[in-house]
Amino acid sequence: MTLFLDRDQIVKLLTIDDCIDAVERVFKDGGEATSIGLGHFHVKAAIVGNRFAVKVNGNFPGNPEKHGLPTIQGLIILADAEHGTPLAVLDSISITAMRTAAASAVAAKYLATRDARTITIVGCGTQATAQLEAMRRVRPIERVFAIDVDRAKAEALGEVRPLDEAVRESDIVITCTTSTTPFLRREHLHPGLFIAAVGADNPRKSELEPELMAHAKVVADVLEQAATMGDLHHALDAGVMTREDVFGELADVIRGHGRTSDDEVFVFDSTGTALQDVAVASIAYERAL
User: Among 30-34, 81-85, 87-91, 244-248, whose mean pLDDT is lowest?
Assistant: First the structure.
């Protein structure tokens, strides 16, 4: 259970003596944190119009199997950007899943071939379900291939096929795993393919080999971020790409810099930006009112 403490409760719970002792202790210890080792935290913030949001997410891949908890958990604080007034505290699980899938769908709207009907999804957790729902809003998906280390999860989402075979028959491939070893390779590319690489949201994760990235037209949600933590990051480190080789950002594509032929191969490197969180959290807030 998440406990929310308002200002009156804080005043009753804390004394200045508590704070002096705590501050002295934390400075003495140097602010050193013990390594959690099993996961990591993301903190993202942005302003859109008159709304500011900051999201704190814990990403712990072992949670479902070991503790029966979601992989991703967290909170979004939405505030008035003109006066600084906190407006709402929102659970981030569904917002994160939906806004991430929405970005892939927007990219597919402009970069996938118009008649894309077959999709492969690698990694069949919560994000996969959201990705499939969003893709069906922008393309006439008829056939779904699903791949996961947990076969039951894959069977619940679509037809289970070997990776090579599934990708060969697909118009769209979505990768949303926690892998730190790339599994999509250059030889998986074929004319017209659109790949949304969603899983690499920290510098250690990797789903697409650098050579694949170098032989596709790469679109980043945010170039600066993808260059430090996405699959693009690994291609840059390997020396097979430079930032100048990147086709553009998602904003460029929406403004008209997109697919020009059915043979082009595109990779959307999705690392996630707080702009998405502000946009979606604001809708939830307004409707809650």
Answer: 30-34
28, 44, 55, 217: the catalytic one is 55
Contact indicator for 110, 259 with CB cutoff of 8 Å: yes
CATH topology of domain 95-275: Rossmann fold (3.40.50)
Rounded Cα gap, residues 250 and 96, in angstroms: 18
List, in sequence order, the alpha helices (H) in the chain: 7-13, 16-28, 63-67, 93-111, 126-138, 151-157, 163-168, 210-214, 223-229, 231-238, 250-254, 274-288
Q: Hey, where are the domains in the chain?
A: 95-275
Active site residue 12: no
Nearest Cα neighbor of 69 from 152, 169, 1 is: 1
Count Cα atoms within 13 angstroms, Cβ side, for 16. 0
User: What is the tens place of the pLDDT at every residue in 210-223?
Assistant: 999 999 999 999 99
Question: Does residue 123 have a pLDDT over 90?
Answer: yes
Work out the number of other CB atoms within 10 angstroms of the CB of residue 282: 18
* Residue 253 three-state SS: helix
How is residue 171 written in tokens? 């118009």
What is the tens place of the pLDDT at every residue in 43-81?
999 999 999 999 999 989 889 888 999 888 999 999 999
Question: With contact defined as beta carbons under 8 Å apart, do 124 and 146 qualify?
Answer: yes
Q: Which residue has the tokens 């942005």?
A: 46
Mean pLDDT within 237-243: 97
Q: Is the pLDDT of residue 33 over 60?
A: no
